[in-house]
Design the sequence.
């Protein structure tokens, strides 16, 4: 099969899947941006090469790692909810590139009461996902990737869990400094729920590109999210998009800006959305270390979200 036929087949399959109706889903924490760099770019990260956090958006990006890398991220969410991620990219002889990612959300402790509101102790709630993936080259320009994912959620003594897969592809056009990416995330099944009624996972299709203009030291990204939403109206499948730009100010410093159209629309209050959906961030590189910071505005009268990431090249 030629490369062109292969790409057309994959795009056709994605659109067939995207026409199936989406449903309200559980495990929404899986949609959290896992790193400061990705968050600063508005989540437009489906085709950004050589970053271990790319595997959360598109497992094919595992195939672009050029060295062993590890990344830690901390997020202070609303209402003092704490979240963190750990991602690792590594080459194994005889297997190829592998990736591992952990996403953890701690909702804190809550007071437990009896039926007449007398305190009788406390309980906690948290979410956890473990992702392991790999990627392989179809040829020098096309990479496929796959993740296997274990998802767990707990509230007090109750818990739920699920298993899922992520599939992804990237197509690189070196002569144009262009990378095209597509991914289908969270294809799987919940096996245990809190209520006894199994719920769907937040399945999502992403399509996007990363372009490095010839005379501009920057990476420009645009990604369409939730392409599987929109029903039978084709244009509505592309109503949720993000844009990001990473400016390479020097070999050691990057400036990043982003925009999330869906977040801005969802957080609109009254006649205005304020700065909801806009994000900004910076990255600093020193030898084998990289520190990234991001600030995401989520609307009027709400504190923004701040993320801090530390990356290490081993």
Sequence:
């Amino acid at each position: 099969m030629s490369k062109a036929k292969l790409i057309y087949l994959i795009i056709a399959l994605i659109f067939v899947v995207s026409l199936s109706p989406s449903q309200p889903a559980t495990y929404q924490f899986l949609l959290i941006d896992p790193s400061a760099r990705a968050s600063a770019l508005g989540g437009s990260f489906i085709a950004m090469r050589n970053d271990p956090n790319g595997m959360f958006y598109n497992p094919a990006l595992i195939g672009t790692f050029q060295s062993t890398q590890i990344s830690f991220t901390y997020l202070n969410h609303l209402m003092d909810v704490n979240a963190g991620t750990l991602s690792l990219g590594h080459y194994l002889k005889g297997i190829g590139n592998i990736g591992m990612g952990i996403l953890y959300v701690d909702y804190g402790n809550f007071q437990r009461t009896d039926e007449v509101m007398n305190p009788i102790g406390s309980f906690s709630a948290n979410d956890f996902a473990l992702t392991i993936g790999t990627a392989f080259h179809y040829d020098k320009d096309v990479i496929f990737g796959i993740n296997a994912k274990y998802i767990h959620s707990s509230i007090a003594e109750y818990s739920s869990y699920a298993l899922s897969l992520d599939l992804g592809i990237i197509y690189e056009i070196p002569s144009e400094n262009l990378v095209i990416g597509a991914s289908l995330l969270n294809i799987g099944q919940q096996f245990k729920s809190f209520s006894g009624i199994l719920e769907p996972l937040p399945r999502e299709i992403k399509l996007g590109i990363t372009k490095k203009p010839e005379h501009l030291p920057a990476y420009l990204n645009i990604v369409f999210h939730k392409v599987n939403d929109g029903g039978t109206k084709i244009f509505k499948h592309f109503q949720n998009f993000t844009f990001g730009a990473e400016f390479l100010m020097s070999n050691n410093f990057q400036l990043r800006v982003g925009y999330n159209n869906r977040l801005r629309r969802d957080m609109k209050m009254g006649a205005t959305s304020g700065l909801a959906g806009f994000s900004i961030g910076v990255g600093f590189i020193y030898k084998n270390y990289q520190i990234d910071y991001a600030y995401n505005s989520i609307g009027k009268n709400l504190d923004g979200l701040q993320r801090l990431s530390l990356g290490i090249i081993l």
User: Anything to note?
Assistant: The radius of gyration is 20 Å.
